[in-house]
Amino acid sequence: MITLREVTKRYESTVAVDRLNLEIPPGQVTGFLGPNGAGKSTTMRMIMGLDRPSSGKVLINGQPYASIKNPLRQVGALLEAKALHPGRSAYNHLLAMARSNGIPRRRVGAVLEIVGLEKVAKKRAGSFSLGMGQRLGIASALLGDPQVLLFDEPVNGLDPDGVRWVRELMRSLAAEGRTVFVSSHLMSEMQLTADRLVVIGRGKLLADAAIEDVIARSSLTAIRVRTPDSTGLAELLTQLGNRASQVQRHGDNEALVSGMSVEQIGDLAFELRVRLHELRVVEASLEEAYMEMTAASVEYKSPKPPAEPAPQQKFEV
Amino acid sequence: MSPATMRDTARGGAYIPADTSGDGPGGTVGALFAEWTKLWSVRATWWCLAGSFALMGVFAPALGGSIANGYRDDGVHTKLPIAESPAMALNLVQFAVVALAMLVITTEYSTGSIRTTLQCVPVRGRMLFAKSVVIFPIMFVVGTALAALGAAATTPLLFEYGDTDLGKAVPTVLFAGVYVALISVFAIGVGAAVRSAVGTLTTVFMILAGLPGALVISSNELAQEISDYLPSIAAQHLMVGDMEPYSRPVALIVLLAWVVAAQLVGYLVLRRRDA
Ligand SMILES: Nc1ncnc2c1ncn2[C@@H]1O[C@H](COP(=O)(O)OP(=O)(O)O)[C@@H](O)[C@H]1O
Ligand SMILES: [Mg+2]
Q1: For ligand 2, a single-atom ion, which residues have Cβ within 5 Å?
Q2: Cβ of A291: how many Cβ atoms within 10 Å?
Q3: A31 and A150 housed in the same domain
Q4: Which residue has the higher pLDDT, B141 or A292?
């Protein structure tokens, strides 16, 4: 369990994290989403006691990180990859970490095996590619077999196989009852990995809910109404106009209504004796819900929509 | 990316839970083990040590030889204790040692590995303590060995002007070890406060060489007196034991004051600033 209470982090001119309240429960993968610069890494650094909050409290299982004895045994984190000396071998890097927390030497071999780096364990970590650096970071997070795990953008630099492996690893760790908190700026990644989503923008909490609720709450989720009776539709929409949050008419026989339930619209159509051929929920995609939520908080808006394929496709497999 | 960068061809496996038998101590003792492991697993350590011995091997005999020559030319019949030219040479050689000590902390900031270190050992004071406590005995041995080897290399060049009295040489050699150990811990404190390698080396160089240089050449009497309390001057009094202007215990106290001040500033910066 990770708890944040009214956490604010100010750097000279920027408010990186703004009065954040969070509870990250065990047994689930909690996705931590937000555009670049939203404050995800800052939040994770504060959880790990690296950055000090300007105000508020950060607790892990009820304790600040610095008061945990041998903390690697309770909390593991991959923050930026390559937080290591490039001249030291991967093995010695992990060995020093293990010794600091009284973790037996053979655990080093075990985590190297989990991440698939056992063959390059004696090589200088500085010669590793980005993906191998991420794997080593994941190995160091797993070293103490901790109950709480944090991963900051773990799939950066991994190939599709690696991405799938990370996803399965997170799911299996959560299934064992561990707390898994993973950040990403890509909804497509979180959609496949996370049970819950915490979305932030400009340091502020935008959503903290199960994935289904995030979709349901989007104004882009709407009810599609189709009828052969065009005058009936006009009458139905007039009545709905007062109650629905948004009504979009598509031609004479179709409309999209948001802010009302299927039941409410169905009952009204029955009262007005309007024949319906279609009445169904059109769900926003998670991606759309996320874009809508963060549209106002993207730190550097691009002047035009990018001509290239959207970056969120990058990790899709 | 450099051509030496490897390609990630790894395949990750399933999670293996830890087998917890045979746990080590962790805590403060664990922090010491970790620092020891880190120190000996990078090349810079070996380079700095090799550099310090090479410098001593050149400068102690050169200094001793030229002093003996001076005696001969002037026709004086004084003798130079054999450990004194290595002690003088330490004025220069100490920078190779100081470099090694400060790298223990500044490299962590330049590489980002300080984040890993503080994840393992989040109590700032314990982290600084572990680095200092590991460096101290190692540097005592290094300093003693440097002075002893310096003396051995100098003796043949002194000819009849060498004073081989071990009652003088042994204390000088041992106090050289003490000084090198203390100045290393001092450098770690400065490193924790300044963080960058260049900034730390500049600061330490100013205090050890720049400041005494400036004060000694000034004709102001007060400046001369102040210079006696700078660490590298106190170190000479400590090693040579000349009683002027103060005795060895006083020299030791002066040095300790510098070490404590540097460590305290380093600790306060660690406490206050983000990693
Ligand atoms: N050490 C720092 N000093 C000053 N500003 C910072 C620092 N770290 C982060 N920031 C700023 O805080 C904001 C949040 O950054 P970050 O937490 O890295 O976001 P994210 O990880 O979501 O991309 C950004 O505006 C960033 O520029
Ligand atoms: Mg980030």
Answers
A1: A 41
A2: 18
A3: yes
A4: B141
**B130-154: average pLDDT:** 96
Residue A136 distance to chain B (closest CA, Å): 11
CATH number for A8:
3.40.50.300
A175 and A90 fall within a common domain: yes
Average pLDDT over residues A292-317: 51
- Residue B71 C-alpha to ligand 2 middle, in angstroms? 68
A11 lines ligand 1 (CB under 6 A): yes
Q: Which of B37, B119, B268 to mutate to test the interface with A (most CBs of A within 10 A)?
A: B119
3-state class (DSSP) for residue A56: strand
ipTM: 0.90
Range with the lowest mean pLDDT among B19-23, B39-43, B208-212, B218-222?
B19-23
| Residues A237 and A286 occupy one common structural domain | yes
Domain residues for the domain of A221 are 217-293
Domain boundary among A210, A225, A244: A210
- Tell me the pLDDT tens digit for each residue of A160-182: 899 999 999 999 999 999 999 99
| Residue A160 near residue A317, CB atoms below 8 Å | yes
User: What is the rounded CA–CA span in Å between residue A252 and residue A231?
Assistant: 8
The count of structural domains within chain A is 2
With beta carbons under 8 A apart, name residues in chain B contacting A111: 16
**pLDDT tens column, B85-96:** 999 999 999 999
Question: The whole model's pTM is what?
Answer: 0.86
Phi, psi (deg, nearest 5) at residue A278? -155, 135
Residue B20: predicted pLDDT: 67
**A contacts of B112 (beta carbons < 8 Å):** 80, 82-84
Q: Does the beta carbon of B125 lie under 8 angstroms from any beta carbon of chain A?
A: no
Q: Terminus-to-terminus CA distance in chain B, angstroms?
A: 27
Residue ID of nearest Cα to ligand 1 atom 17: A39
Using a 6 Å cutoff on CB, does residue A42 contact ligand 1? Answer: yes
Tell whether A29 and A144 lie within a shared domain.
yes
Cα–Cα distance, A214 to A219 (Å, whole number): 10
CB contact under 8 A, A113 and B5: no
The ligand that comes nearest to the alpha carbon of residue A42 is 1
- Please tell me the residue having the least CA distance from ligand 1 atom 3: A11
CA dihedral B106→B110→B114→B115, nearest 10 degrees, is 160
Would you say residue A317 lies in a domain? no
Helices (H), B75-196: 84-111, 113-120, 124-158, 166-194
CB B26 within 8 A of CB A101: yes
| d(CA A64, nearest CA chain B) in Å | 10
A201 in ligand 1 pocket by Cβ < 6 Å? no
Scored b (16 or more CB within 10 A) or e, B201-221 reads bebbeebbbebbeebeeeeee
| Mutation test residue for ligand 1: of A8, A13, A14, the one with most atoms within 8 Å of CB | A14
Cα–Cα distance list, A98 to A107, A108, A152, A294 (Å): 8, 7, 21, 40
